[in-house]
Amino acid sequence: MCVIAYAEHVRPTKDMIEAMYKANEYGAGIAWRESGGVSWAKGLSVEEAMELSEQVPFPFAMHFRLPSAGTSERLEACHPFPLSDDVELALAGSTPGSVLFHNGMWNNWREKLIDYAVKSGKKLPANSWSDSRGLAWVAHHFGLGALELLDQRVLVFGPETVEIFGTSGKVNGWSLMDVPKSDAKIWVSNTHWVRSGNYYLDPPASMAGGHHQKQIANGQAGGTALTPFRGAAGVDQDAGEWGGEQETVQETNEAYCGLG
Questions:
Q1: Coil vs helix vs strand at 186
Q2: Cis geometry, peptide bond prior to residue 59 (ω within 30 degrees of 0)
Q3: Is 148 in contact with 156 (CB distance < 8 Å)?
Q4: Is 41's pLDDT higher than 50?
């Protein structure tokens, strides 16, 4: 299972990055704001990911990839993907718009993309397809509201806003994770990586009673005002708590993908 990390006020430690990469070693990616737009680099080694995570300005998002079954294993299939007509595969670039990171598996995505393209008359670009690239294509052509209906864990990182999408029901998978030797936390899309190798953290703080899921930036590096996530069908949801329900969701997804 891939993992997305969103850093708003504190950087993940090298140990955290190493653990996320070890559990998802098909390439890392990172996006940050620059010159009024969004820049990205992907297909990164763990060393490159560590280096860039220390250099880019706040806020920034990172992704560590474990391919879904039946998707491309090429480096250009790493995240993020720009929301554009061609959902470009460049390993580094910039856009005046937003980029998308995905954690999970979108079932039957090939058939759905073909159906969307045929019915809408939109052109599907070629090369290195995955369900995640498909989500970026859908979000570009049909709007971010489509991500609410498709029920996937997604982070859309834009020049002014950051929107985090969870899953419907009681569990959405996102958690605030303690960063060692810091009072601040980062958002992570799952905690599967925490138990990989010899690296462990205390359970992440739950956000029970809070409304900290959709994040809208004020346009200044490091500053965002937090409001609810966008869940399925636009329902505001609290962040998922550490517990058995999330473990069940993760185990089910991993088994389905042939990863468990």
A1: strand
A2: yes
A3: no
A4: yes
